[in-house]
Amino acid sequence: MKISFTTLGCPAWDLDTICTKGREYGYDGVDFRGLLGEIDITKLPAFTSGVAETRRKLERAGLQVSCIASSIKLCEPDKQQANMEEAKRTIAVARNLGCTNVRVFGGGDLTKLDRAQLAEIGRAGMESILALDGAEIIHWLFETHDNWIKSRDCRLLLDRIANPAFGALWDMGHPPRVGGESPQETYAAIGPRVGYTHVKDALYDPKNKLAMADGWRYVAPGTGQLPLAEAIALLKLHGYKGWLVFEHEKRWHPELPEPKEIFPLFVRWARPLIA
Prior knowledge:
Distance between the termini: 8 Å
CATH topology: TIM Barrel
Number of domains: 1
CATH superfamily: Divalent-metal-dependent TIM barrel enzymes
Number of helices: 9
Oligomer: single chain
Shape: globular
Strand content: 15-25%
Radius of gyration: 18 Å
């Protein structure tokens, strides 16, 4: 396994700082979910007209682009055109960066449609994306997120699309914290389709002022209550060779520790687990 960090964790860092610190802290890659003030990197000159220089900077730092984290929401009917436009932009950027992974969401409104109906919308949307030029050389990774946290729900969409270019992104925090699943349950349902991971730890601490609405608060990896080491051990047991990505959500939670404090901690915690 290789380790990466998402730019959600360093929203104030420019590209040069990302390269310098990523290398200094011992990461193998970077997952782009925004850069500075823009969440969609496909709209930035550094990833369009200036993408060749961006790639050179990353390569000089010894960093691969592990993933481009898109905002595509497959199961939302009113977003299908926007999804296609973002997918086209993302394919071009991914190809120029040498990146083979793109994250997508499920989304959808469960007050209007049930999950099976949403999964049908997602199937049609993903098949349209897969028909785009260059799409099948990319691994489109459907995250255990929003309405699709429980693995049995994820299967509704995964089972509809057998194309190996479509797979699962296992966010190791969501299924146990929100879905009440053990790593064994999640892996049994979606394990063979897992092509990417997100890792973050949390502690149930409802009286703490930093707790989220559900009573949980994010903490340093290995110091919380989530079965992260257990999930990583399962992946290792089954021969997973992909990315382990530290999803430090400082962009959404400014109160979280600064990247200079928490990013090195993740490396020290994760390396022994994947050795």
